[in-house]
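S., here's the first fold you wanted:
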Amino acid sequence: MKGTIERNANAPLPTVEGTEPETVNLAERATRPTQVVLGVLRILIGFYFLWAFLDKTFGLGFATPAERAWVNGGSPTTGFLSNLEGTFSGVFANLAGNAFVDVLFMVGLLGIGLALILGIGMRVAAVSATALLLLMYLAELPLVTNPIIDDHITMALTIIALTLLGAGSVLGLGKTWQRLPLVQHNAWLV
């Protein structure tokens, strides 16, 4: 067809020599109500992880009774991992109660929760949360209510989407975080 210019969709956008391509933060370009919804969603998912950390640490009586709290010598991974009956139950049962796995799990819950609530380190939080949620998904296979998908997968994809949209800068400290010299020199910390 005459007069059309084809551009490779994977090719970088042209820039003026000596300038960097502009990074588009979709959350900042959204309407204010959309920004608020993205920010609140990010904070709520962060609180989901932080609450799991707090309940397992202190045995607040919701998912973890006080006598099984981490501070009282309980193992945060034993209850879930030792009661599995799925495809990979044997693999995960061997990890139950391992002190290293307990610490890794709890640091993950705390780090992901704080990062999402504060809107900082969203890339690290997205990768960490996705890894944790995928392991939990695998631990529960085969699924009971839906043979393919569950809330672990949808939550992981939601966190990835919030990260890609730049939701850390809405109702959070994402903009301030990104201006830190350490973060500017290490893009993976964004």
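And the second, which I think is the more interesting of the pair:
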Amino acid sequence: MKKDVRVRFAPSPTGPLHIGGVRTALFNYLFAKKHNGTFVLRIEDTDQNRYVEGAENYIIESLKWCGIPFDEGVGTNEKYGPYRQSERKHLYKQYADQLIASGNAYYAFDTAEELDAHRKNHEAKGKTFIYNWHNRLKLNNSLSLSEADVKAKLDAGEDYVIRFLSPQDETLHLTDIIRGNITIDTNILDDKVLFKADGMPTYHLANIVDDYLMKITHVIRGEEWLPSLALHYQLYKAFGWEAPKFAHLPLILKPTGKGKLSKRDGDKLGFPVFPLAYKDEKTGDISRGYREDGYFPEAVVNFLAFLGWNPGTEQEIFSLDELIQAFDLSRVNKSGARFDPDKIKWFNHHYMQEQNNDILAEQFKLLYPELKDIDVNYIALVINLIKERATFVDDFWNLGHFFFETPSDLDEKSVKKAWKEGSAELMTELTGIISNIEDFTVDTIQTTVKGWITSKEIGFGKVMMPLRLALVGALQGPDVFDIMYLIGKDESLRRIENTINTL
């Protein structure tokens, strides 16, 4: 590529960052790193009415947790700062004025009441009110008023907005990296507001000016911005600037495949739609997050990469470096990507197996007060035996609680299946065999017990099932001999004897 690649993620701090926003950030990050470019974070807070305190920090923390930090942005390498649009508002008015001077925009003095009356009048006739070529000369703006009237209104301090003058009877030929060639009839476009009465720019003006000043080469954003593409292309043309290349990512769909994924879907089906847990300070409601639900960031990133993109191979497990090498916008789909809660669990299970047992042990110990006095090295040994069946750190207790406490009761179904006539006698005889084992290692226990079973010429199940029942309280868990080794000889004997006495 001729220019140094520069991409940006530009969220609004209006609440928690949706998982779809994280996917957008990820694709920008992958594209930037693939081309040795720069990933910029810009906070688009022009809508101060929807601004939420703490949302900006939440966005930054989310990106850091996912392992996709920005190279340039708020508080980091502020080469083209400031990176909050609210701190750049002094810049935008001059560009709006420039568009008026060049005849590409105009002042509109219509009040909210006047516009509402026009809408209702159109609705009564079964029509839709659109502020554009069709009616702008009949409305209260600098196109329909004399220069003297316009000057008088401005001098008097009347409220106004600045609207873009959308061309009439033209055909726009646009290009999108993912969507291909797009043709737009300008007669269907409205004259969008670029500058509001409160002195703040709209998203349309601010993001174009900022992308230009920050030298953004590629705009990779969600499909919801596709209807704005025509206006943004026209703004670049009106300013005489070279437009960046655009790529609009497909929607992330509900698990049913119909409609855009929402927080309500997560609440209803029991999965998070935010990277981190989030507390709404107004309502006190707490939304679940992938971090707090026990997901590994690598699993979340690997899963999100496949929402709308595929590498063209059968490979599904990718490290971040591998994703960077494989990523290509040409392999991003146009159609929406279905969100599959089971698939992200599958990814998490895989990454669980790659985690360091010592680190997992520390995390597990923090979750359960019952483990506070237990050596973390012992916990790590237990995890090594049970993590193959675990998806989350929280699963370790159900999979291995019997390593840390004597089972308080016996599972009824397991008792019926494992404890038969003669089981008590066999278990009593086995306690004598176990008591005589001096070198209590897994190999020695296994060799001794299996040798005794063979010498008695009985089926292994007749011993191993009641033995597991005694040690675990149910017919579950890893290898019996591993369990005996870890809980120790005395505890193994105590559990067997308790079971004999109970049954």
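Why I say that: The two ends are 76 Å apart (CA to CA). The chain has four domains: 1-74+250-354, 90-195, 355-403, 412-502.

Talk tomorrow,
H.
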